[in-house]
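Tokens as discussed.
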């Protein structure tokens, strides 16, 4: 099977700061690193490093060919990554010593994915494949509708959160993942708690408290506590978790087993500085000794 990811590709500029800046504050950074990033690229790398076959649908600018090459180097199929005229998307990320972060995002080429491009890419998909999207590209509704019509398992990571964007794709979804704050915002917008959404499988991530999984067809739910590690950078941990869950789904794992594996990958991720370039592979996750 294949995971198709309509996803963003960014250059992540990560600045180490003593604390997150306050309004009007000029703050010196002690370090600067550039990583491959974007929620889409992070999820593609995580799923590929977890052993899944991943095809990325996206776009970079003339300045972003390095990003596509790096994606390919991590085992992601990039034949459907187009070159747009707009600059490559990028994020400015400030990370304080506790690991908490602040992110400014410029979408750039991620919002320049044409309908013909999407149609050509998904024309190669097969029933039973997975399709995942995030709210960092255009064409999400078109992709979700096409995925449903093709018999794909349609998945959505609801970030950066926008209630209207989620509601637009909700009728087509089989799987939805969002964090605790996003779940509350979606409930305010729709009047539906996670267990009541018209989506078969829902995961709400709870940060340091772990995650909660809902099977809305059976009415069952399960809590998964987070593993205790010393976090240095939480950037990309949620994307790593999502990519590993998707890879588990693609391999036919029971959802609790996929979530357990994803929790371990995310726990390793927060002990590292960086984004896609430092996502652990499956062998690292399996051999890691975590509490």
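Sequence:
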């Amino acid at each position: 099977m294949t995971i198709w990811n309509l996803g963003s590709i960014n250059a992540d500029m990560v600045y180490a700061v003593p604390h997150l800046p306050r309004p009007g504050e000029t703050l010196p950074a002690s370090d600067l690193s550039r990583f491959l990033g974007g929620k889409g690229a992070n999820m593609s790398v995580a799923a590929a490093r977890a052993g899944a076959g991943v095809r990325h649908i996206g776009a970079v600018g003339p300045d972003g060919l390095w990003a596509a090459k790096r994606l390919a180097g991590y085992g992601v199929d990039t034949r459907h990554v187009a070159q747009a005229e707009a600059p490559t998307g990028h994020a400015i990320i400030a990370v304080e010593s506790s690991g908490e972060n602040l992110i400014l995002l410029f979408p750039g080429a991620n919002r320049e994915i044409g309908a013909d491009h999407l149609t050509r890419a998904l024309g190669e998909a097969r029933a039973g494949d997975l399709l995942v999207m995030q709210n960092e590209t255009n064409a999400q509704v078109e992709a979700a509708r096409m995925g449903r019509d093709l018999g794909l398992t349609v998945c959505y990571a609801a970030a950066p959160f926008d209630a209207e964007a989620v509601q637009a794709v909700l009728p087509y979804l089989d799987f939805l993942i969002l964090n605790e704050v996003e779940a509350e915002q979606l409930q305010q917008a729709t009047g539906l708690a996670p267990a009541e959404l018209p989506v078969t499988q829902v995961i709400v991530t709870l940060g340091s408290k772990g995650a909660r999984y809902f099977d809305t067809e059976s009415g069952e739910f399960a809590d998964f506590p987070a593993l205790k590690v010393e976090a240095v950078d939480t950037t990309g941990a949620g994307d790593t978790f999502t990519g590993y869950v998707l890879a588990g789904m693609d391999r036919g794992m029971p959802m609790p087993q996929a979530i357990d594996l994803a929790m371990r990958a995310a726990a390793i991720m927060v002990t590292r500085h960086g984004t896609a370039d430092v996502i652990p592979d499956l062998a690292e996750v399996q051999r890691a000794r975590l509490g």
